[in-house]
Amino acid sequence: MATAKKTPAKELTRKPATKTTARKPATKALAYPIRPRDTEMMEEYGQVEDSQVPRSNLTMYSDKPVLDNQDLFVPKLRLAQGLTAEVQAGEAKPGQWLVLGATPAEAVTIVPLGMAKRRELRDPDTRSVACRSGDAAVGIGNPGGNCIDCPLGHWTPASAKRGQSSGRNLPPQCTFIYSYMVYVIDSGKMAILELAKTGELAGRMLNTMLVQGGFGTFGVKLTSTAKQGPKGTFYAPAVAASAVKADYIKKALAEYTAVR
User: Fold this and answer.
1) 254 phi and psi, to 5 degrees?
2) Domain ranges of the chain
3) Are 255 and 183 in contact (CB under 8 A)?
4) Residues 254, 258, 259, 260: is their CA dihedral positive or negative?
């Protein structure tokens, strides 16, 4: 029987690997202008990442920068109500005083350092500020103009359009605010205290103390009082003179000078 001839297996040969040149990563645009010294650094050390500041740019830092009011942030000293965000989150209780970075407290002691009278009108639907005045005299926005003659800043007779029963006067749509720059002794922070609406009486009492004693000369203890309104319980601020150490007064005046 004839035997089939086997075809010899074809020898496989491996092609030599093609040498590839590693692609250089695309140069990342710098967030700052490249200076001659920066170029030298890149040639010596490679591309400078955004997270690294070239040594030549370190000269832009100063311990005496030129800052204005837009560069500073002073937190508000607020009285918590039932719908305040911190209360809803379980971080505070109604009637406590709140300031950013400090523990909520039933009472705080402040040193009043300056004040302003201002006005603010908010859109009833969006709650955005429609008109404001930094001196409670001239408004900027809509409607703007003379605050004294503006009907939105005065109590008006009831109207069916605003949903009030006949014979009941309506509060001003534009809110009048007593605004104070204060030093909070308990937290060692500067803050802005604003008293308006149910807090306006406390503001007048504080104004009387300031007329008698002067700014930056005494302490004031802030507490709150629970009251009943048409929508339930709310808390109104209460003020009382408080003795404070001279060191706190000195510190308060220094902080006030620093932020002005």
Assistant:
1) -65, -40
2) 69-259
3) yes
4) positive
At 105 the three-state DSSP class reads strand
| pLDDT tens readout for residues 123-141 | 989 999 999 999 999 999 9
Pinpoint the alpha helices (H) of the chain. 36-45, 85-88, 200-213, 246-259
User: How many whole angstroms separate alpha carbon 78 and alpha carbon 84?
Assistant: 10
Q: Are 224 and 235 in contact (CB under 8 A)?
A: yes
> What Rg, from alpha-carbon coordinates, does the chain have?
33
Which amino acid is located at 147 in the chain?
Answer: C
Q: What is the rounded distance in angstroms from the CA atom of residue 74 to the CA atom of residue 149?
A: 32
Q: How many CB atoms lie within 10 A of CB 181?
A: 22
pLDDT score of 31 = 47
Residue 25 CB partners (closer than 8 Å, separation 6+): 47
Whether 43 shows a pLDDT value over 80: the answer reads: no
What ranges make up the beta strands (E) of the chain?
A: 76-79, 97-98, 108-122, 129-133, 138-141, 145-146, 174-184, 189-196, 219-229, 232-242
DSSP conformation class of 8: P
Rounded-to-integer distance, Cα 237 and Cα 258, Å = 28
174-177 contacts, C-beta under 8 A, 24 or more apart: 174/119, 174/120, 174/121, 174/131, 174/139, 174/147, 174/150, 175/119, 175/120, 175/121, 175/122, 176/117, 176/119, 176/136, 176/200, 177/117, 177/118, 177/119, 177/120, 177/136
pTM of the complete model: 0.74
